[in-house]
Each structure stands twice: as C-alpha cells, then as structure tokens.
C-alpha cells in the first residue's frame, strides 16, 4: 500500500513492562547501527514514548496529531513538528514523515528534556539484561530439561500457560501423557525475575491422580520440587493444546468465508453430481473436498507461527534424552540466585 518497504513486529510483553523498554533499547541501537533506518514504536496505550515524557512535551502535540511524528533516527529520538500550513489535528503519512525526516533531521531532534526522560528508562542496557534474570533449581521431568537445553525461551510460554490456566487446562494435568513424574532430575532453570515471581507466588496443589507429589515444606529442596511441579504443569498444558490433537483447528479452517466460496464454486461446477445432501456419496465427496481445502489452505509455509506445544513435541521426538548424564550433572549444579 502507501507504506514503503519495512520490517515490523509485535510482542506480547504480558506483565513485564521492562521487556517493552528492552525492545525500545534494541530499536534505538538498530537505528544507531544502520543510519539509513527510521523506526517508530507504539503499544496498546499509543505513543508511549511521549507518555513517558509527558511533562516536557510542546503544547501543540496531542494524542490526535502525534501519529507518524515520533521516530528513532540515527540513534536519537525525533519529533516532526506541525508545518505552518497544517491544521492542528492533521496527520502525516509514513511516506511524508520519512521524507521530512531525511531532509530535516537536525531540526526535528526532540528537546533534550524529552530525550532524557525516555533514555532514562533504557539506561543501563545491555548490562541490565543479566540483572533481570533469575536462576533457580527445579526438579523437572528429563524431557523438559532436554527441551529447555535446546530452546530456553520456551520457559516463558510454559509459565504463562500455568499462570493463566483454566479448568479445561487442568483436566489435561490429571493424567500426564507427555511429562510423566517418574523420570525427574534436578536442574537449573533461567527465568526472568517477572516469570519467576509469577510461578512462585501461585498457590497450587497438584491433582492426586497426576502422580506429582511434594515433600514436606520443611524439606530442604521443597521449593525446587514445587517450582518443577508447576513448570511441568505449564509444559503439559502447552502440549495438550497442540494442533496435532485439536479438532478445533480443522473446524476453524472450514468455517470461514474462504471455505464458503470454495464450496459454492464446487456446487456450481456440479462436483456433487446431483447427490442428495447428507447421502453417503455426498458425504464422501464432501470429506474429500474438505481434506483438499485444508491441505491447500494450511500449507506449512503459510503457518506464520508454530504453537509452543507443537515445538515442544517436535523437540522431544528429535532429541535423545540421556537420563544418566542428566543425573550426573544434577550432582554438581551451580548455586541458585538468592530470593
């Protein structure tokens, strides 16, 4: 459309606002590294960089006219002012904004007070990245330990699945199909402080049928057992939501306007050969059409995102789990971070 070639992205930062400011830091560094790039960034509150610097903004700037006026360019924050001829509330297109920015970037540098307010939120990076981690001992099924070795970031999806669980999710955790409690080992898991807090502060008692039992709270490793149990529930919930076992994904594909158009075109071309709707022959032809449609619409390359559960199951199939080796490592773990 009107927008020039660009890269974009969306992040769900959940309860961790610090993640959002980390992204601001990254975006600023990218524009510093590649001087030809301009970048803009907003969130569910809108132009949150301006909100951060609200006390220092010029009088003319308002939520109504701020669209496409706030950019990182050459590593600095820029604000494109209204021109003399512009109405108070008129908005720029991205193309207009970029032209102005490349021609007048020195004039559009945001006031020092505005830049200071924003940069204060991202000061301390990249060193601050390490400070936001929390490493804790967890007593976990060997399969999860192996999966986290390959993809440490899956811990976030698992914590979220546990944190936002509902009764349907917990039904999957009555009998653990994927991560049985029999083969557990002690390991160190790296969380962010936010994820760790979300897991620790939840009161949760496992279903007796699940096979997950906890030692007495006085046990020296009670916390590691409890953390591992909660995390295992998160991983099990993710796997239970997998498309491999979910008939919903098929229903979703076959309920959209695309399918309706496909079906009516088949009818026009007499695909059903005059068979009565609901007859055995009609149903057979319909199933063939559904399968064909599903395969052509949901090709792997058109799936933008693999669900975390699918990814976990794939990793489990392709990873060899050496229990003896994991137990040897468990005997000499590094200490965990202090509460």
UniProtKB/TrEMBL annotation:
It comes from the Eukaryota. InterPro entries: Ecd (IPR010770). One of its GO terms (cellular component) is nucleus. This is Protein SGT1. It comes from Nestor notabilis (Kea).
């Amino acid at each position: 459309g009107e927008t020039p070639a660009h890269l974009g992205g969306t992040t769900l930062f959940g309860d961790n606002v610090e993640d959002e400011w980390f992204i601001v830091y990254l975006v600023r560094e990218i524009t510093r590294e590649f001087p030809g790039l301009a970048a803009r960034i907003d969130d569910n509150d809108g132009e949150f960089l301006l909100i951060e610097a609200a006390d220092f903004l010029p009088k003319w700037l308002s939520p109504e006219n701020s669209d496409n006026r706030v950019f990182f360019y050459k590593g600095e924050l820029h604000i494109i002012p209204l021109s003399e001829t512009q109405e108070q509330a008129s908005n720029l297109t991205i193309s207009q904004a970029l032209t102005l920015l490349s021609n007048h970037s020195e004039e559009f540098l945001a006031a020092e007070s505005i830049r200071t307010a924003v940069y204060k939120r991202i000061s301390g990076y990249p060193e601050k990245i390490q400070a936001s981690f929390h490493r804790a001992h967890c007593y976990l099924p060997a399969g999860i330990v192996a999966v986290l070795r390959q993809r440490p970031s899956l811990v976030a999806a698992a914590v979220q699945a546990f944190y936002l669980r509902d009764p349907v999710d917990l039904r999957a955790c009555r009998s653990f199909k994927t991560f049985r409690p029999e083969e557990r080992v002690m390991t160190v898991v790296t969380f962010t402080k936010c994820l760790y807090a979300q897991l620790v502060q939840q009161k949760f008692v496992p279903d007796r049928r699940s096979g997950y039992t906890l030692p007495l709270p006085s046990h020296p490793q009670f916390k590691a057992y409890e953390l591992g149990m909660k995390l295992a529930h998160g991983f099990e919930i993710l796997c239970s939501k997998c498309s491999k076992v979910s008939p919903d994904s098929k229903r979703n594909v076959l309920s959209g306007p695309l399918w309706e158009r496909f079906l009516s075109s088949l009818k026009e071309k007499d695909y059903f050969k005059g068979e009565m709707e609901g007859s055995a022959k009609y149903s057979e032809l319909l199933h063939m059409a559904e399968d064909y449609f599903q395969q052509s619409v949901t090709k792997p390359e058109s799936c933008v995102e693999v669900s975390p559960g699918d990814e976990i199951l794939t990793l489990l199939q392709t990873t060899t789990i050496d229990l003896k080796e994991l137990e040897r490592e468990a005997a000499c773990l590094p200490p965990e971070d202090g509460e």
